Amino acid sequence: MAVFPVVLDANVIYGIVPADLLMTTAGRGLYRAHWTEQILDEARRNVIANNPHADPPTIGRRFDLMNRAMPAALIDPPATELVEAMTNNPKDRHVLAAAVSINAEVIVTDNLADFPIESCRPHGVEAHSLDQFVTDLVSLDSQQVWAAIVEMAERRQRPPKSPQQICEILERYTPTALQQLRGQNLA
Question: Which of 38, 81, 156, 175 is least surrounded by CB atoms within 10 angstroms?
Fold first, then answer.
């Protein structure tokens, strides 16, 4: 199976459980996850800003661990000229430019409005929501997606979680994908 590159936007790595699913499915070879330091910085800033009791070093450690776990995921920032050539929402031009710079065909984002088709199509890129992307992964290899959820549950220690409890959390983010897994009697 060919492993295709995908750029993950800050909003899909913001939450711990969705980020874990994306990391684990990438680790199982379903696709190659990529991000830039700017994407990680945005996610880090938003987690800290939206959680007044969050400990910034702990939050920073989470994103550092992502880079350590998948060192090839961190890509160089795209050239300024490439970023400026993008026509999508200005605050997310760096994300589309990152996808173009590594020949990724997909950006996973829940800010689809920031990546209109007319801005992405000329570069051979599509923006998919987290739910759409995970649904595509389920269609590609539902057994591996389920194995990723089981692996996530096995790592949970404080507090322990079963695969079904992980699915209950993921259902908030990926309802269609979870429905498809349940339809195959996997979840």
Answer: 81
